[in-house]
Prior knowledge:
Layout: E1 2-8, E2 23-29, E3 36-44, E4 52-55, E5 67-68, E6 78-87, E7 92-94, E8 98-101, E9 114-116, E10 124-132, E11 136-146, E12 148-153, E13 156-157, E14 173-180, E15 188-197, E16 231-240, E17 243-248, E18 254-257, E19 260-264, E20 268-272, E21 291-295, E22 303-306, E23 312-318, E24 321-323, E25 330-346, E26 353-359, E27 361-363, E28 366-368, E29 378-382, E30 388-390, E31 397-405, E32 413-423, E33 429-433, H1 436-452, E34 453-454, E35 456-457, H2 470-483, H3 487-503, H4 525-529, H5 539-551, H6 554-577, H7 615-636, H8 640-661, H9 673-681, H10 690-703, H11 715-723, H12 728-736, H13 743-748, H14 783-791, E36 794-796, E37 805-808, E38 818-824, E39 829-836, E40 842-859, E41 865-878
Helix pairs in contact: 2-5, 2-14, 3-5, 3-6, 5-6, 5-7, 6-7, 7-8, 9-10, 9-11, 11-12, 11-14
Amino acid sequence: MKIQRMKTNRIVNPLGFDLKTPHVSWTVTDTEAKKQLWARVEVSKTEDFADVIFDTGACKTASSLGVPVEVALEPRTRYFWRVTVMGDNGETSTSDTAWFETAKLDEPFTAQRISPCLAPDTAPYMRRAFEITGEVLSARAYFTGLGIYELYLNGEKANDEYLAPGCTAYDSWIQYQTYDVTDLIHTGENVIGAILGNGWAKGRFGFDGVVGDYETNFPGKPCNMYTDEYLLFGELHVTTTQGETVIVTDENWQCAPNPLTFGNIYDGERYDANLEIENWCAPSCTYANWQPVKLNTTTNLGAISARLSLPVKAKHIITPKQITTPKNELVFDLGQNITGWFTFMADLPAGVELRVQTGELLQDDCFYRDNLRTALSEYRYISTGKKAFIRPIATFYGFRYIKFSGVADLTGITDIQAWALYSDLEQTGEITTANEKVNRLYLNSVWSQRDNFLDVPTDCPQRDERMGWTGDAQAFCPTANYNMDCGAFYTKYIRDLLEEQKRLDGKVPDVAPLLIGRKPGEANPMLANGGGHCGWADAAAIVPWETYIATGDISVLENGFESMKLWADWIYRYDEAHGATRLWPGIEFHFADWLALDGPESGFNPESVLGGTDITFLCSAYYYKSTMCVANAARALGKTTEYDVYKKRADEILDAIRREFYTAGGRCAAATQTGNAISLSFGLAPEFAREKITETLRGLLAMNKGKLKTGFLGTPVLCRALSDNGANAEAYTLLLNEENPGWLYEVNMGATTIWERWNSVNPDGKISGIGMNSMNHYAYGAVFEWVYKNVCGLNPVPDVPGYKKAVIRPQPDVRLGAAKAMVNTAAGYFETGWQYEDNGEVTYTVVIPFDAEAEVYLPKKDGTTEEMTLTAGTYTFTL
């Protein structure tokens, strides 16, 4: 018996996170036992467990999905924990030791916010020298900065993460990071420092942008939404054999211009190596022109909070290949569309300004970037004549292709690599089939998740947007929770949503964080009038509920319930103010079934955006779904009064929808593919009408030659609605269609991520438009929820979340040949797959982890179903 995947609040050994009540979890492998008899969790402040401060004893109810550690946590303290498990065969095992470490909790900072005394918008080095006496036993840095900062000690980067402090509404809350820097500090003279650049808070970022200009240094607009000044704040605590030394940000620090002379998230960065200061963060630095710093009393910061954001790390390193273009450009192809940046060694003559541009696709076999709109997405490097390692600092790119210019050839440019950056998420799911194009499509969906899970779930990573769009997030959330352990990632996003809702009386904006300037006198039309859009704002209710089902972590609901209620109550008040019909009237703008192919301009405008499904129907459908999410969450949390309120409200909404949109003969008035699919998927259709609505949906597909017309709201549920209602063959036809519109059309056109539009690229290879056309949008990758749940058959059970109980109900189709889902769920490793044999029978494989069970339904060759209940083990059936 082995105990693995030990996590606290879904994070392995979290350092300095805002944990509230820690919940520790684990999985068990390599045992013949089927069920857990008991588990014992022990917590100690010492690694040898000589002083145990929390002990569940041999607890029969201790769940591997999460045991709350109910102790009074102390600030800046590491807690060690281990778990002992006994199986029903008498086998026991004790885990290795894991830990979690608190940040400062309620301990006040003695640090002060500091900014450089330099010319406006001059990005700084900031540093301070200090002495340490005695042997260093431990050292922690608790720091944050704006726009983006990297912390250094004695010439070494303090951590392996990038783009800190992450993306938040900084006037509501800003995260500080905790770093273990014990190994970087020594007895005697030391230096701590930071390099700062622009980012989300400072520099150009936001809607309605005006491009920046490298030649004139015009920064672009909107600019400096949260701060006009660079800012650093933090404390360094060093414990030695002679006591504790605390170094804080104050007026004893120094500053100087750093090499980042231009830059922002959208336009990229210019690095002038002539401004480098040798050994700038080391005791050996001889630079004599350090300037003072000042206390920052003007930047409007919200609460300085321990981090929720997972660190952004370099998760994959790719070596690109040079390609030849008709224009003889110096272009490299990664072979994969990524989010991140490029690195290389540069040994160029002094004064050379190297320009690096990025793009997602080629046009006429040449470099192309026009679909990035106003985002310049480039990098400039000015050489001193010395060999140097080059990487960006305070920006990131969405790209597959890199173009070098400013040099005649690549002489002196070597070791070119691309780093894929995203939040440090564990990949938990994998799908394989007998169809290589479907396999590539699955990889495309995973890569789009990676590329758009950089601290917030963004819409796209490349153009002048890169924001936490709520509609994309809710559409993809169930799929995301299969692909990766998203519990901690979504916990941070739920906080982003809540902070905006507090400003808007519960209404959810279209993006969170809502990165729009809030300085006095600035006009903020989206802040004042935007948001509250069906299928977008409902992320506040859907994301916490779906994540709870996937993880079984009750803390997700505890943290998310306020946001869920605020949103459901906002819709209810809107309903009350517009007739109290228990419908959500679609009398204002809604994105609705965005980018569907059945809208008023579909067929003659390749860049049309609006779908054709009735807006009031879609609004009311999500009114019902969000209200039910709140009711279900209330029940899970034991909030019986709230459950009664929201369940009654949901019943009234459902009754109103059925009276308004369903005929006595069983037809849905929202007579589109999306309308019928949502009718079935959301449980809106009366039972007597489901068969007719399914037949109507079949007919709509047949009229369109078996192809879809759905957009952002219809696509995630379309195949599931079909397979769940006896139209499995039609669902497979949609998946396997290789013409436009269809998922495999993108694969045939060379896509390595999911496109924003079905027609992002035309069959002749020409881009269909540049107004809004991303090659890296994960929303339509939500089809893999259907592949996990219906094709392969792995379904969670909401009443027993976290896959302690599953329903396994594969729905094979001979055209696919074989399919298998492998998912390291919160409960452990599940596998469910099938393969057609030559005689027409199907061989099924099922793997169920320790302490879990599954209700299994396997289709047989004769059309009947084999039903069974299985506990932990590996099973094979040929039927």
